[in-house]
């Protein structure tokens, strides 16, 4: 399904449905398509919002987790959202955590993390292969999922296009290094809002122990594992993901 991409100033975003805002933050190689099932499921109960994160549009000094968290803060401020639920996958989860740590004054009702970086992650690797190595990119994209068939040609093509662009590669590496440097730890214990951790049991990028560590550090968190599932549960097993998330949100009404 195609959604209308709205623009306001420098922000581009999808906004579907009515109710409490459910703001979705995608990862480093993420796209709006990652959240399609989630948008469809929750638009009947929430205002589902997906801002397009400017992964390749910030100047190189701001191409950091902190730079993206600042962007998210300005977006939420501009939109005037209150009582929002913030959901982040992979790098998006890391950005959500940094945003919340920097802005405890903003009324955020809950946080949902799935395959989030911030403690530990296996990235694309320290270096990129020569541009044009499609097979390498296909195999790397497959590692995101438990079922390699989830790495469709369309998805691999999107990643291939990014790593085929020299400037984008520089920004991807800058963000990946920033994520590793901007490691979170004990300060997470200051986040007392309700947190739902939804993790793929077969995630090789942020393995299950990362979910367990977040659970230990975040005082008001619950942890759910999904079997036969990798780094992007909302894409790979949307039915089970939406069921867990729906039950969590229901408790907060």
TrEMBL record:
<feature type="domain" description="AB hydrolase-1">
    <location>
        <begin position="21"/>
        <end position="236"/>
    </location>
</feature>
<dbReference type="GO" id="GO:0016787">
    <property type="term" value="F:hydrolase activity"/>
</dbReference>
<dbReference type="Pfam" id="PF00561">
    <property type="entry name" value="Abhydrolase_1"/>
</dbReference>
<dbReference type="InterPro" id="IPR029058">
    <property type="entry name" value="AB_hydrolase_fold"/>
</dbReference>
<protein>
    <submittedName>
        <fullName>Alpha/beta hydrolase</fullName>
    </submittedName>
</protein>
<dbReference type="GO" id="GO:0016020">
    <property type="term" value="C:membrane"/>
</dbReference>
<keyword id="KW-0378">Hydrolase</keyword>
<dbReference type="InterPro" id="IPR050266">
    <property type="entry name" value="AB_hydrolase_sf"/>
</dbReference>
<dbReference type="InterPro" id="IPR000073">
    <property type="entry name" value="AB_hydrolase_1"/>
</dbReference>
